Fold these 3 entries.
Entry 1:
Amino acid sequence: MDKEVQGWPRTSPIRLIGAGSIAAGIIDLAYAIVFNSRAGVPAIVIPQSIASGLLGINAFRDGWASAALGVMLHFGILFVAAGSYFLASRKLEALVMRPKTYGALFGLAIYLFMHAIVLPLSAAPKFKVTPASVVGDLIVHIALIGPIIALAVQRFYVRRLPGAPQA
């Protein structure tokens, strides 16, 4: 059987999924820390709030251990998101051909999924939501998080096409 189907190589896509999720994760975490620091929230609270999805209120008592767990969970969630986009792009070529458009829609989907399904089902306490936080989160997800993941997938695809330069 041919090892290369529709431009997809036999090599593992883990690097692209990792690169997309790391880049998106750094931007998302940095945004959350900077945005919340304006209200006096210490930086450590942001990853602890992510860990609170599993640990509940105890995440805020566990110091750097829960912050580290929160960072791992944050990047793990984005790794799953990037992997999902990659798998979908194997069947829907438009995701690769129009990464900015579909990346923006994917960013919106990530936001909605997290806020409508994941957070309500988690052990995290209810956090104060303001219009500014909703707008800021939406902008970051639509303009940066989704498109970064989509562009990482496109880069992987284009570099594997016959005759494309390999690096």
Entry 2:
Amino acid sequence: MQIVQRVEQEKPPLVCIASLAPRGLAQARYLCKRLRGRFPNLTIVVGCLGAAEEASGAELTSAGANLVETTLAGVARQIKPLLALDQPGVPRRAAISK
């Protein structure tokens, strides 16, 4: 099943894309563009592992990613509070801007 179709069906609170630099950057950018075009309010977090933050961050945020991290620990740190947004009793925060 394509990721876009799966997001349409499951309506997750966020999508996390894992990419291995340098070859995965183009694929992650393409997926960000497709997801952002179809789901303008979706939170997209990209783990561009092994890349320099300056190089990957600007490209991926311009393609639609809300957050870009270059380590697995950074990705986990970013998504943990975002997933808590949909838990009962946890107040929702303002939307994440690009």
Entry 3:
Amino acid sequence: MQLAHNTLVAVVDGEKFSLFRSAGTEAAPKLTPIAVPDVGDADPIASGGRHHSSSANPDDRQLVEDGHAGAVADVLNKMATGGQLEGLVVIAAPKTLGELRKHWHKALSAKLVAEVAKEVTNASADEIAALLAKHS
């Protein structure tokens, strides 16, 4: 995948959130880490999570992870509606990506270049760039 200059890459799982900016060329992107806005406490109700513990969702950990995803989506939505995004690639753990999608604002959806369902929150910027280079 080629990344346009200034495209943001968000890397998310149920606990972590990292942002990178594409600072190279489209053919040879260089991902530079940027400061992550505060997502606040991952409160499942405040961030839009509506799941309840049950046999299908047996513990509160999933509620916290869903809450974190909702809080991250809120941050990305504010960036999109505030004109701070030219393009966005989201790489997230599969469950987290599913939860994020529930919260996308139309302005964010319009800026979304790609979604990659993969757990890479512990990967380096170079490893993430290599993953994106292989992704079509």
